[in-house]
Amino acid sequence: MHAQPRQTILIVDDVETNLDTLVETLGDEYDVSVVMDGPSALQFVQSQPPDLILLDILMPDMDGYEVCRLLKADPATADIPIIFLTALTELEDKISGFTLGAVDYITKPFEFLEVKARVGTHLKLKQALERLERQNLELQAAARLHEDMERITHHDLKGPLNAILSFPEVIRESGYLNEEQRDFLRAIEQSGVRMLDIINLSLSLYKMEMGTYELKPDALDLLRALRKVARELNSLCEAKNIHLECLLEGRLVGPRDELYVMGDSLLCSSMLSNLLKNAIEHSPVGATVQVALHRSRVCEVRICNQGETSPEIRERFFEKYVTYGKAGGTGLGTYSARLLARAMCGDLELDASVPGETTVVARLPLPAVTAP
């Protein structure tokens, strides 16, 4: 087993007795080097950068302030901690040193225990910062690997999915299909398109978590997206005898109604799908899930279902992996829905103020009104 290499210290002072005292104090624990002027210190550091520098302020030709300024101006030496050695006690002198980048002061005449304590503290801090930097680099590398794997997975999944999307049309053109069989083919096509959307969305969600997603907003019909999601969730509604009710400004939405918001069609549909699916799954059999839309400064979408959210998760309702009372639940639906809403410059909030009900409120930006 190899012994840990000793940390290195450079002492810069033009008084030999000071150097002797500091070497005697620190030499048992660290590898100590000494120089007696500023130019020699700069030359030494370039060839053998130490872990820490003890730097006298008052020296002829080039004082400690100038040495510190030059070291901090060079990226190769800027991170080396510098502790000033000084007989100066004025506050202005200390502020000057800290402004230049020094981490601490040791006042002459030296107290042995103080010197050891201050040097030891800053060397431990330097080690901790270096570990943190290494961990940060490892996390960045892991994030890049994760994104690369996502891209590879997307590419590999799209190949067989293209076959799923193209074969129904080939089968349809062959003829001899009854209406039920045609419905099955349409369901396969719709499921394939939905799968393709999910594959495309997964990388976007990862970028949203990393803060690197770039939205390209466009005006989209929110009611059209809502109708599409309702069709996709129809079988889930039928299984629980759930009725979906959609209101616009307090009245039932008609087949020709439109409501435009700014966002992305895929993100908006996925957000609505997650929220409606969550509302349906947490509703009692035979209940009504209401979607109420209102325009003011923004578009407000209130999705309300019967069934009260447990008080113990209300504050964490949109956090990752938070779930309650749902077998096999991942706690990712509402989390991803909020990511999607915020990516479109909107947001989500939970309204649990009415006993026995849960309401999720989504707010999305409206298109800018063009002056006539």
TrEMBL record:
Source organism of the structure: Megalodesulfovibrio gigas (strain ATCC 19364 / DSM 1382 / NCIMB 9332 / VKM B-1759) (Desulfovibrio gigas)
Catalytic activity: ATP + protein L-histidine = ADP + protein N-phospho-L-histidine
Alphabetized GO MF terms: phosphorelay sensor kinase activity
Gene3D superfamilies the record matches: 1.10.287.130, 3.40.50.2300, Histidine kinase-like ATPase, C-terminal domain
UniProt-recorded name of the protein: histidine kinase
Domain Response regulatory: 8-123
Sequence ranges assigned to domain Histidine kinase in this UniProt record: 152-368
Key words, A-Z: Coiled coil, Phosphoprotein
Modified residues (4-aspartylphosphate): D56
Coiled coil start-end: 122-152
Enzyme Commission number(s): 2.7.13.3
InterPro entries cross-referenced by the UniProt entry: CheY-like_superfamily (IPR011006), HATPase_C_sf (IPR036890), HATPase_dom (IPR003594), His_kinase_dom (IPR005467), HisK_dim/P_dom (IPR003661), HisK_dim/P_sf (IPR036097), Sig_transdc_resp-reg_receiver (IPR001789)
